[in-house]
């Protein structure tokens, strides 16, 4: 499996993966995403900006993720270790629910780190809703450091900000 740019002809498949994952999270009481997030317009925009990547398993989308340097204002309040300004921010990371439990998230995290190193980033930053226990475990197992609780625009639920410095 390898991380590659998403294409507009994958839009329907990507949207279905996000919708399926959102339903599954909501059933577990995780309200990090809603029926209208991520929206079709947002996903199209991510593809056109070339910030949306897919992890392909042959021709099937195994996972999707947005990689860029954009972040919410809440990130300004975090005491980040890396002050270089060369950090990668991870958004909307999602493993296709049809193949969850097969190690795809571990592979995806490795591909994100490979991508970051290849593009000269010195660290990776991301966040997740604290009650999203699977995501919290995933980041901690992959040696991301908890940097503090933040509140994102439009959410009353606390999120944990994470950072991983790269060699």
From TrEMBL:
Residues 1-167 form the N-acetyltransferase domain. GO terms for molecular function: acyltransferase activity, transferring groups other than amino-acyl groups. Keywords: Acyltransferase, Transferase. InterPro entries: Acyl_CoA_acyltransferase, GNAT_dom, YpeA/RimI_acetyltransf. The keyword Membrane does not apply. Pfam families: Acetyltransf_1. This is Acetyltransferase (GNAT) family protein. It comes from the Bacteria. It comes from Laceyella tengchongensis.
